[in-house]
Specification:
The complex is a heterodimer of chains A (746) and B (284). Chain A is an alpha+beta fold and 746 residues long. Among the domains of chain A are: 23-31 and 449-594, 2-Layer Sandwich (Aldehyde Oxidoreductase, domain 4); 411-444 and 598-746, Aldehyde Oxidoreductase, domain 4 (2-Layer Sandwich). Chain A is built from 19 helices and 27 strands. Chain B is globular. Chain B is built from 11 helices and 14 strands. In chain B, the strands form 4 sheets. Chain B has a 5-stranded antiparallel beta sheet with strand order 4-5-10-6-7, with helices on one face. Chain B has a 4-stranded antiparallel beta sheet with strand order 11-12-13-14, with helices on both faces. The N and C termini of chain B lie far apart (57 Å). In chain B, strand 8 (147-149) and strand 9 form a beta hairpin. In chain B, helix 5 runs antiparallel to helix 8 (120-127) and helix 9 runs antiparallel to helix 10 (235-248). In chain B, 34% of the residues lie in helices and 25% in strands. Chain B has helices at residues 9-18, 32-37, 73-77, 80-85, 87-94, 99-102, 107-113, 120-127, 222-228, 235-248, 259-280; strands at residues 2-4, 23-26, 45-48, 58-61, 64-68, 130-134, 139-142, 147-149, 152-153, 160-167, 173-180, 191-200, 203-212, 219-220. Classes of the chains: A alpha+beta (746), B alpha+beta (284). Chain A binds chain B through residues 122, 613-616, 618, 653-654, 658, 666-667, 671-672, 674, 676-677, 679-680, 733-735, 738-739, and chain B through 39, 180, 182-188, 190, 254-258, 260-261, 264-265, 268-269.
């Protein structure tokens, strides 16, 4: 019954475009986000942050702030003993939430204040006196590996290598030296990408309340309330079961809300003040002190035979992790050549520390940068070989049976079908004008499964509550209600999906890695099937026949066999109504570590026009082709494709953290950190391919991330085709393009 | 902080003059309220001028137009006579912010905010606009003389702008404004160029050229005007215009653009702006 294998079943509800369940509340303002919860007696908390990129904290004097009337608690690292018991990652989180002996980046928190109102809290911040000793800093990933660079985290330094180099993730197959020796044409290039932020509209916000009895509650905007609970409880020495975390509606996350930032401090302030504490980041704080993505610097080398057979490929990319180590380079190394079948390949992702905020996940983290380098290089290779870039990709494409560079042998995968769909798409035949160019690029993302726990409860009127522990960041509630309706044979409208708080279900992993609909969908299927078993038992009881004679069909129990032909079917509602007298409430439950997540591939086409006098690029037309496995709710799937492409376009053209020589962030706001506005984007066309994931009963693959991977490369290729200059650095901002045109003498 | 909303200019001026602390004039508030929220200002008094009738009307006078200091961008954009006479001034003002901001933002506010990158200011300068300043006594000052540095104006304590005056439209004349931004809207100018010109039998008889975002203050560039006066805006004149604009720039390298880029694009935009103004004025 709990076999996750794909069965190819026919669907009634899945694949339709039902109304979203959260729409009315969101457009009318009734939906409650992180900052929308209040509690009696709550205090307002603010953070004092380092103005220095790197400084020793010699002394923090909070005495004046504490004495200010209306101030109820002030905390510094001295109030946060290290309870991490040698867990290095957890200690990083502790140090990131509040600087200890050193401030490690511009915006690093050094003290927190809780007061009766915001103006009192602001005054208190001004009364805290921090004595800093400024230290040398470094914010560029390549500079960080220079001999004279300051060492950001001595505790991570390893003998025999640069102190800011944390580790290298190395993946590949074959013998690349021999491969390159066999190549007729080799293209080797260097690339850089700027640091970007996920740019979610809702800032981090929470309401924390800790009682003297050791229990606590946290209302918070998060992608993973269980992860927040576990982390906060451990950092504060609380029992995990005694901290209840409730996830609010979320105004975007894209990976940036997979990690705690100021939440442990809000809880610590609440505990110290013995009052509920509300903490909301400003936009400046979000930019400076949450978790943007890595900037990178890389070298890509690809060699091919004259006929276009790629025989060798090498990638080495340095990922700027911020002030604390992550696995970002490692992920990048795994994704580098995943779209292709290359006998000899090696990809190295290097994790490097800098005086910038701790990097967090951002939609297919680490893959877009590597793809920018690889897809740009493949395009240049196609020019040198005189082979059409789509045909060159198709000639070397990974297929079922190909061993991925990071180990697994692919099952049925979608890269070849997406490339074929691109090749045959009318977009590819549309005429281009002066200064216009077209680019194509591919992308890969893993997707994950993970721990999942869900409850399905049938009410007395036959309507259904499905309670899940994966928060809904991209439409999961609609998809999960459709899945439950499909399994039970009832209508979508009869299912209400709730995101349970951490005390209502067992641990659920965070909504990340495009796992929400995949894994909670799987749990919903099995929980519903368990409920169907119960429904059948109850029907048997009502009919007084053996349960073996009951079958479930189209939302009704039917008595099987001629001898029961007098028994009319009992609907789910009929059975639910009698539940009280047939054995009590009817429910289904499922918990598991979901396995079998399906990888997803995408290929994109983009047309651009570049103004050769100003260097400004306009996106004229954009087409996303991606494998969804099975699109549960096609509107949401298309929305994910479009949203991912839109973020990729922003990254490619304008978005970038700009640091001054002083190591301070200069554009911590949406005016000078330029995400695209509506008029910057064309209506993004989408094509959903459905190559079922064999590891899911419905064939679902994660769909949320893959399509942010190709845009950087696709746009770079399009710009090159438009004006004849190759862009080696992202963002391809107008000044950079104009400079490249100058240098090329165009 | 006190909030006052007087109904006459006289009352408003008195409130500003009497205030001992920090006093600010609130027109649209699209800069002031942002600064308030960012804690960069701590006003003791805010004087809202939107209830003063003289400041909320666009008057057509014998000598041109008088635009009240509280007139929003959206209201300006709907005034057909103004749109016909000074399309460049209107389009520049209408480029400020979003639709929501347009419902509030004002030309006078844009001027008093004194940003080097203000969109409406180069257009006003090119058009020969004047600011009517009220205070202890009334004075009228050319717009190009108002801003003396980033965030700094010649307005003294107790003074405020009551209205902006624009000359009447002259036959065979027109203006235009273009700015460069990395996006398509809701952005701040990296370079802004405004040009007004008057033709006589297809030849440019007089012109004014103003630049924004390329120096600490918006610039009136006389050399640039000279480059096109007496021409039919042929390629040579356009090149001379571009060169004059580029060399007038005194920009900084910052997060919004490099010195080199701003100089270059000032020239590019000047050519494009001149062509639009020339065509609008009836030149071919």
């Amino acid at each position: 019954m709990n076999d996750p294998k794909y069965t190819g079943q026919e669907f009634k509800v899945i694949g339709s475009r039902v109304k979203r369940p959260d729409g009315i509340d969101k457009v009318t303002g009734r939906a409650r986000y992180g900052a929308d919860m209040n509690a009696p007696g709550q205090l307002v908390a603010l953070m004092l942050r380092s103005p220095h990129a790197h400084a020793r904290i010699k002394k923090i004097d909070i005495s004046k702030a504490e004495k200010l009337p209306g101030v109820k608690a002030v905390i510094t690292a001295a109030d946060l003993p290290d309870l991490t018991e040698g867990n290095a990652g957890l200690f990083d989180t502790l140090e990131n939430s509040m600087a200890r002996d050193r401030a490690l980046y511009d915006g690093h928190a050094v003290a927190g204040v809780a007061a009766i109102d915001k103006s009192t809290a602001k005054k208190a911040l001004k009364l805290i006196k921090v004595t800093y000793e400024k230290l040398p800093h470094v914010t560029d990933v390549d500079d960080a590996l220079e001999d004279d660079a300051p060492i950001i985290q001595p505790r991570y330094a390893t003998e025999g290598q640069h102190g800011n180099l944390i580790n290298k993730g190395e993946f590949g197959q074959g013998d690349i030296d021999q491969g390159f020796a066999e190549a007729d044409v080799i293209v080797e290039r260097s690339y850089k990408t700027g640091q970007t932020h996920q740019g979610y509209i809702e800032p981090h916000a929470c309401l924390a309340s800790v009682s003297p009895d050791g229990t606590g509650e946290l209302w918070v905007t998060t992608q993973g309330h269980y992860s927040y609970r576990n982390t906060c409880a451990q950092l504060l020495g609380m029992d995990i079961a005694k901290l209840k975390v409730t996830s609010s509606e979320i105004g975007g996350g894209f990976g940036g809300k997979t990690h705690v930032w100021m939440e442990p401090i809000a809880l610590a302030l609440s505990r110290k003040a013995n009052r509920p504490v509300k903490m909301v980041m400003s936009r400046e704080e979000v930019f400076k002190a949450s978790g943007p993505t890595c900037s990178t610097s890389m070298e890509i080398k690809i060699g091919a035979k004259k006929d276009g057979t790629i025989v060798a490929a090498r990638a080495e990319c340095r990922y700027m992790n911020g002030a604390f180590p992550g696995m970002w380079g490692t992920l990048g190394g795994m994704t580098a050549f995943a779209c292709y079948s290359i006998p000899n390949n090696k990809a190295i992702g290097v994790n490097v520390l800098c005086n910038r905020p701790k990097v967090a996940a951002y939609r297919a983290p680490s893959a877009p940068m590597m793809a920018f380098g690889v897809e740009s290089t493949i395009d240049q290779l196609s020019k040198e070989l005189g082979i059409d870039p789509v045909e060159l990709r198709l000639k070397n494409v990974a297929r079922e049976g190909t061993q991925a560079p990071y180990g697994p042998v692919w099952g049925p995968i979608g890269i070849e079908p997406t490339l074929e769909a691109v090749r045959d798409h009318p977009h590819m035949k549309a005429k281009l004008g002066k200064n216009q160019g077209r680019g194509v690029a591919c992308g890969f993302w893993f997707n994950i499964g993970g721990q999942t726990c869900s409850d399905l409860n049938i009410g007395p009127d036959g309507t259904v509550n499905l309670t899940v522990g994966t928060i809904d960041v991209g439409g999961a509630r609609a998809s999960l209600a459709m899945i439950a309706a499909e399994e039970l044979g009832i209508t979508y409208e009869d299912v209400k999906v709730n995101i349970g708080d951490t005390s209502s279900l067992g641990h659920n992993d965070t909504t990340e890695g495009s796992r929400g609909t995949f894994s909670s969908g799987m749990a919903a299927i099995f929980a519903a099937r368990k409920a169907v078993d119960v429904l059948k038992e109850r029907a048997a009881k009502m009919w007084q026949i053996p349960v073996e004679s009951v079958i479930w069909e189209d939302g009704s129990a039917r008595a099987n066999g001629k001898e029961h032909s007098n028994l009319s079917p009992l609907t789910l509602k009929d059975i639910a109504k009698k539940a009280g007298s047939t054995g009590g409430p009817i429910a289904g439950h499922h918990e598991a570590t979901a396995e079998g997540a399906g990888v997803s591939f995408a290929s994109h086409i983009v047309d651009v026009e570049v103004d050769p006098e100003t260097g400004k690029t306009q996106i004229l037309r954009y087409t996303v082709v991606q494998d969804a496995g099975k699109a549960i709710h096609p509107d949401y799937v298309e929305g994910q494709f479009q949203g991912a492409a839109a973020q990729g376009i922003g990254w490619a053209l304008n978005e970038e953290y700009i640091y001054g020589k002083d190591g301070r962030l200069q554009n911590s706001g949406f005016l000078d950190y330029r995400i695209p506005v509506c008029s910057d984007l064309p209506s993004i066309d989408t094509k959903i391919l459905e190559i079922p994931n064999p590891g899911h009963p419905y064939g679902i693959r994660g769909v949320g991330e893959t399509s942010i991977v190709p845009p950087l490369g696709a746009i770079g290729n399009a710009v090159s085709n438009a004006v004849g200059v190759r862009m080696y650095e992202v963002p391809m901002s107008p000044p950079r393009i104009l400079k490249a045109l100058d240098e090329a003498g165009v | 902080m006190r909030y006052e909303s007087p109904t006459t200019t006289k009352e408003a001026v008195a409130l500003l003059a009497q205030e001992k602390g920090q006093a600010y004039v609130l027109a649209g508030g699209t800069d002031l309220l942002v600064r308030l929220r960012l804690d960069t200002i701590e006003p003791d008094l805010m004087v809202d001028i939107k209830r003063i009738p003289a400041m909320t009307e666009i008057k057509k006078t014998a000598t041109g137009f008088k635009i009240g200091a509280a007139i929003s961008g959206a209201t300006l954009g709907k005034n057909k006579a103004l749109l016909k006479a000074w399309p460049g001034v209107v389009e520049a003002t209408n480029l400020i912010g979003s639709d929501q901001v347009q419902g509030r933002c004002t030309m006078a506010g844009n001027l008093c905010n004194a940003s080097p990158a203000a969109d409406s200011v180069p257009a006003m300068i090119a058009a020969g606009a004047k600011a009517i300043i009220v205070g202890k006594k009334k004075r009228t000052v050319a717009v190009e003389k108002i801003i003396i540095g980033p965030g700094q104006t010649i307005l003294e304590k107790g003074e405020m702008i009551e209205a902006i005056s624009l000359p009447a439209a002259v036959k065979n004349s027109a203006d235009a404004y273009l700015r460069f931004i990395p996006r398509t809207e809701m952005d701040i100018a990296v370079v802004g160029v405004a040009i007004s010109l008057k033709l006589k039998r297809g030849v440019i008889e007089s012109a004014r050229v103003a630049l924004g975002a390329v120096a600490p203050t918006p610039l009136l560039v006389k050399e640039a005007a000279k480059a096109i006066i007496g021409t039919k805006l042929d390629d040579e004149a356009l090149d001379a215009l571009a060169a004059a604009c580029s060399s007038a720039c005194n920009p900084i390298d910052d997060k919004r653009g490099t010195i080199e880029y701003r100089r270059r694009v000032a020239g590019v935009l000047a050519k494009r702006t001149a062509k639009i103004a020339y065509e609008r004025a009836g030149g071919k």
